[in-house]
Amino acid sequence: MKPKAIEMPQQFGRVAVMMGGTAAEREVSLRSGTAVFNALRESGIDAVAIDVTGNPVQALAGERFDRVFNIIHGRGGEDGVLQGALEAIGMPYTGSGVLASALSMDKLRTKMCWQGVGLPTPRWALLKQSGDIDACIEKLGFPVIVKPAKEGSSIGMSKASNREELIKAFELASEYNCDVYAETWVSGREFTVAVVQGDALPVIRLETPNVFYDYDAKYKANTTQYHCPCGLSDSDEQALQALAVRACEAVGVEGWGRVDVFIDQDGHNQLIEVNTVPGMTDHSLVPMAAKQAGISFTELVWRILETSF
Fold it and tell me: Known catalytic residues?
């Protein structure tokens, strides 16, 4: 169900823009939060920037707010923890609720849900200990990409093309204190689809000279290319948009989100992950897709804030 359309900035009341956090994506969140805060102020909304460095409820203490624009990426902001804390104090907030946030933050369990409802996602193998390496090789072969299940922005991820690289990739991903899994490497074209208030925005195709679309390619490099229009036929783009909406619905994502997907060499769609608090920086993809749809950054931020109703 779409949130009600808000016409006057006063209807939002006083808005806390919660950014930062203590996760690995803190610096990106601060950049996103600053951009969101400035856009809200430009719209005449009474917004206050809140840099969360510890307990999120304490960060709100001593001031009166009517709602929260959550732009904390990663753990503590995107994983249901903040959502649960805000619900406990009766504070409305943007985006998905506790269940969808917690589930989507866990990329492995998101894949399990998608598989359970018949949506396409690459094959994987759980890596709990070094003894799982050979079983993984037997199941998936090479190459694979190894991921910590609960990190965002490609943090802790690496490609492995042989046993030695797989061991190193497992050791790296294990540093992030969550499940680690290997996923079949998908050779093909990479796309991302933003979904705002239940509607998919224009699809973006990503190209990077890096091994994959890693943290450097996302936030630092000037060599990453973003194609929007994405180059797909109208029917193929519409199919990808419909898949992204279904992927969000399957895990209960509401308000807004961004789905990452590949089209493999056989032309099959392969869902990778869904982000419930996507980036809103100058390199970010949701604002880029919105612009292609004729939606300014300021209007996009307004529409996301509407999801707090």
Answer: 25, 153, 219, 258, 260, 273, 275, 279
